[in-house]
Amino acid sequence: MFSLSVRVGSMPVGTAGNAGARHRREGMSRVVFGLLIVGFAVLQATVLPDVGPVVVMPNLVLVLILVRTAQSGIGDGLLWSLIAGLVLDTLALDPLGANSLALLPVVLAGAAGRKRFFLSGVLFPMMLAIAATIGHAVVLNAVRTIGGDALVPYDALLRFTMLQGLLNAALVPLFWPLVGLLGNGRSERGS
């Protein structure tokens, strides 16, 4: 009739021994994700611009941050956007904090992706990737202009950014399971 459950802290008794193993896995997944961010940032800044005659390239770091935020929450997204932004600032010789600030719209879009809309699965985050790419480009253009660079006309910026947004949206279904494997056991989408 009645069930009695004994809890230690917030965990039922008997699961306390598994907590240490879970924390080690979470720590390792964060290290691997950090290495993935740095590796993709280096690839994006050094190798991809020299590949072929294609001018428009996907923003790998943006897609990683978007998917990680959609799967693990806004706190994780803010942490990784700060780290990724500092790495990108160093590689691109941008003012310190410019890329971190430009990744904030990506984190907000990823946070919106945590909600299920129309039971869409990955379709809604793909649409959010386009919006996040536009937000990222507009903020980065504004920050670079304040820093003294020439203002890129917004019509040219939006044409280029829409193409990049489509490429980023195409990467979301590829990155979703990869980030899910590294998602600290919290890869289910919640409210």
Question: Which descriptors would you attach to this protein?
Answer:
single chain; 191 residues; mainly alpha; Arp2/3 complex 21 kDa subunit ARPC3; two-stranded antiparallel sheet; 7 helices; 2 strands; 2% strand; disordered N terminus; disordered C terminus
Structural class: mainly alpha
Mean pLDDT: 80
Low-confidence stretches: 1-11, 185-191
CATH class: Mainly Alpha
Number of strands: 2
Termini Cα gap: 32 Å
Q: What composes the largest sheet?
A: 2 strands, antiparallel
Shape estimate: globular
Q: Widest sheet: strand order?
A: 1-2
Helix content: 55-70%
Order of helices and strands: EEHHHHHHH
Number of domains: 1
Radius of gyration: 19 Å
Counting DSSP H or I runs of 4 or more residues, the number of helices is 7
CATH architecture: Orthogonal Bundle
- What is the fold named in CATH at topology level? Arp2/3 complex 21 kDa subunit ARPC3
Structure in a nutshell:
The protein is built from 7 helices and 2 strands. The chain is mostly helical and 191 residues long.
Give an account of the 3D structure.
The chain is an all-alpha fold and 191 residues long. It has one domain: Arp2/3 complex 21 kDa subunit ARPC3 (Orthogonal Bundle). Helices cover 68% and strands 2% of the residues. It has seven helices and two strands; from the N terminus they run E-E-H-H-H-H-H-H-H. Strands 1-2 form a two-stranded antiparallel sheet. Strand 1 (7-8) and strand 2 (11-12) form a beta hairpin. The chain is globular, with a radius of gyration of 19 Å. Mean pLDDT is 80; it is low at 1-11 and 185-191.
